[in-house]
Fold this sequence. Notes:
By secondary structure, the chain is of the alpha/beta class. It is built from 14 helices and 15 strands.
Amino acid sequence: MFCDKAIYKRNIQDVLNRLRSLYEERDQSKIFAVMNIPNKHLQEFKNHSVAGICHYPDPYERILFWDGVLQERIGLLDDSIPSAYLSEMDQGVYGGVLGGDVKFMCDPTGWISSMVFPLLNNLAEWDKLALTRSSKWYKRYINQLEIFAREASIKFGISHFTLIDGLNFIFELIGATKTYLSLIDEPELVRKVVDFAYNLNVEIQNDFFKRIPLLDNGTCSGMAQWIPGRIVCESIDPCHMTSVEYFEQWAREPVQRIFDKFDGGILHIHANGRHLLKAASTLKGLKAIRFFDERGFPPSFDVLSEMRSNTGSIPLIVDAKYKDFDNAFKQHNLIGGILYEVTGVPDTGCANRLMDKVRRYQL
């Protein structure tokens, strides 16, 4: 499927060209930016929602929420591509389609996430697992994909969502502690389950790409905005608390395998996983790395030079507070080949004036 429209983005062709120069050409002479301004729909959601466990939401209500949020950004001339995210399916669907007990969590920021209780008592029970397309959660997944695709229409895109493969999948089966112990006590069993997880993730992602149109032959991304090709969104979170050697032994092959199955992928890395950067950056088909900041660690924006030295020309995506970004801009200290997610921008006018300068910025 193919779509060449996104009417909630007035300068879409210019943005697609810029993002193509970032992700295909890895242009280090430019900077790129997404401007985050106050949003009335997000504030309304916050005012009327309660943080904590909630029911599976009506997909029509969720796509209506995204429609309002994205339409409100229509005047922004930044490097963002409007897309809705299936946060409800982000984790829970992978265990739900195997019979897991899916629970949902409402975050007043607008996010409704899902997870499952561990499915198994121990990893030896893994051969009981089977994907059933007639299961409640697979039907809900397909239904939500179709609703989102139909209601988004030519207004905005639908973002890919995170894989739960490799050790992440075993986390869902038996929990984190038992997963780490299994790497030592039953490594061959772990490898069999990782193979099962690969096949499950491919099925789920294939169904995504069958039902969600590409935008100008590229994948919309809540993390990277848009990248040419059919791109998956990968996580190596379990390795954040391990050594680089564990990443090499347990994560590299599963990540590489699924990148090769599609047209590549992106990674997100939390602050406690920065020691993996040099190794992870050598993955073939890696299109970008999205950084998430955490308490107890310096913000990515403050250590960007160090991180860049470990990642080469891989496009990076980092958060930056408006004042910090503006100050670095004035001092001509911004690093090229980076997509800056600028937070706390006062309004659309301020954002667009700053974007005029961003597009002229040269290194």
